[in-house]
Amino acid sequence: MMFQKNIETMPRDQIEALQLERLKETVKYCYDNVPLYHQRLTDCGVGDGSKIKALSDIEYIPFTTKDDFRDHYPFGLMAAPMKDIVRIHASSGTTGKPTVGVYTKEDIRIWADLVARVAVAGGVTAEDVIQISFGYGLFTGALGLHYGMENIGATVIPASSGNTEKQLMMMRDYGVTGLVATPSYALYLSEAAKEAGYPLTDYKLRLGILGSEPCTPAMRSQIEANFNIRVSDNYGMTELGGPGVSGDCEARNGMHFAEDHFLPEIIDTDTGKRLGEGEVGELVITTLTRKGMPVLRYRTKDITKITYEPCSCGRTHARMAKTMGRTDDMLIIKGVNVFPTQIENILINIKDIAPHYMLVITREHYRDSLEIKVELENVELLENYQRLSDLKKHIEAKMQSILGLRTKVTLVAPKTIERFQGKAKRIVDLRNQ
Amino acid sequence: MAVKQISIFVENKEGKLVTITDSIAKANIDIRAMSVADTQDFGIFRLIVTDPEKALEALESSGCFVSITKVVGISIPDEPGSLAKIVKILARHNINIEYMYAFITVSKQNASVVLRVADNEAAEKILVENGVKLLEEKDIVEM
Fold first, then answer.
1. What is the pLDDT of residues A106-148, one digit of tens each?
2. How many angstroms away from the CA of B41 is the closest CA of chain A?
3. Nearest CB to B9: which of A382, A384, A392?
4. What is the SS3 assignment for chain A?
5. CB-based contact (8 Å) between A389 and chain B?
6. Domains defined along chain A, listed by start
7. pTM value?
8. Which residues of A touch B100 (CB under 8 A)?
9. Domain limits at B14?
């Protein structure tokens, strides 16, 4: 099923022609309405964009970063007068000033289409009863999904987050068929549902449209098994207007961008050079239709790759792979790029250890080494020394085959690795000390 | 019949053994036998003590990773060839010894040994049939 089939299956050359036209419009719009962009576009020689001949000419335009949003907080990147703005959203601002996003009436309408596409690709129909268990407020997730689901014609329950018992009661009593939540909250609810003691047949749940934080494949299967549902993944961020940038379809082989509204690129994080199809690098996105706050070449800091191959679902819009990590937590060890998320994904699938770890990087005689501290969980291992040392070797072998790097695994006693309430700090880099 | 052994995971870090031995000392528990298996990174410290349950509690409350398992304890004459005799009996019955260690306190005539095997009951039965004296919890306390 597709929400806007004629657009979502548009031939590649037509998509690109549309993108080129919209890119030129966007550049001109930014040049005319945002002082920061006006300055930058002037400095780089692109000016009002009339010289842009091909999509690849985008490489002459400077990147926009998270710092630009902070430095021009709150409305420095706004391109439309406040009288045309109908909504303000903002990120939680855990890493500094909140990131603000403003929307015109048209932006809100397009956003509802974007989210509807992602939701329909995830299986939602007008028949569905959707419980939105994202926290409502400035956060883009809840209202974004809310409008998108209503756009499809689904029934929306604005449950917001918290009060687990009530969440489960609503699910049973209102015949909820689709859950919108963060993966971790969905997992928590699914565990709580098991404990609450009602049989699964009391729930009509069949879909999970999860987002706003990365979901590991292991988490996804756990949620799917606990609730007996199908979970779909989607991607977005406040800087780009919220959810709806991309989302996966029934093929589950990458998340389709809405390429008529976003122009994605992959770049080399260090050099900023554009990379080709299938190459892994940092995702950079230019909005093509936003009027309240258009963004040129936003560096998402997410590491992924893009394919332009048509998908078995029939959609022609490019797909991004599940994000493989963030550039700000990428480690370069002996010249190998290593993401903590890769390590986490390896550990989560190994028995007898807890999913808590600490990475320690040291340098001796100009050689880097990575030590991975892992907590033991299974007390039975103490009985057999061989099993302990086999476990250590097994983890080291897995790391070597997946990371392409020799690591040293250190097994430590349970509950000795620090637990983090918020953003975890799992990396100790001692190389520059 | 078997005696209880305590196994403690020891990270190769300064002060780890202090934590372990200290908490046992403070709980007023006597160590009767011990063994350490180690690599560069970690070790397993095994103990036979006068009060395993109390030791477990003391160790856990000081943050150690501990388990209790049953092992076979035997008392054999303290003379040349007696350990060899035991090992032969077990080998003849295809009982594999995963590890073993001796007690620290030995009486005048006898030495005590801890044996870790896959099937305690089978090993004990064979040893008894061959006239070997097995140790019980009360023997450990009375040593």
1. 999 999 999 999 999 999 999 999 999 998 999 999 999 999 9
2. 7
3. A382
4. CCCCHHHHCCCHHHHHHHHHHHHHHHHHHHHHHCHHHHHHHHHHCCCCCCCCCCHHHHHHCCCECHHHHHHCCCCCCCCCCHHHEEEEEECCCCCCCCCEEEEEHHHHHHHHHHHHHHHHHCCCCCCCEEEECCCCCCCHHHHHHHHHHHHHCCEEECCCCCCHHHHHHHHHHCCCCEEEECHHHHHHHHHHHHHHCCCHHHCCCCEEEECCCCCCHHHHHHHHHHHCCEEEEEEEEHHHCEEEEEEECCCCCCEEECCCCEEEEEECCCCCCECCCCCCEEEEEEECCCCCCCCCCEEEEEEECEECCCCCCCCCCCEECCCCEEHHHCEEECCEEECHHHHHHHHHCCCCEEEEEEEEEEEECCEEEEEEEEEECCHHHHHCHHHHHHHHHHHHHHHHHHHCCCCEEEEECCCCCCCCCCCCCCEEECCCC
5. yes
6. 111-233 (3.40.50.12780), 336-429 (3.30.300.30)
7. 0.69
8. none
9. 3-69
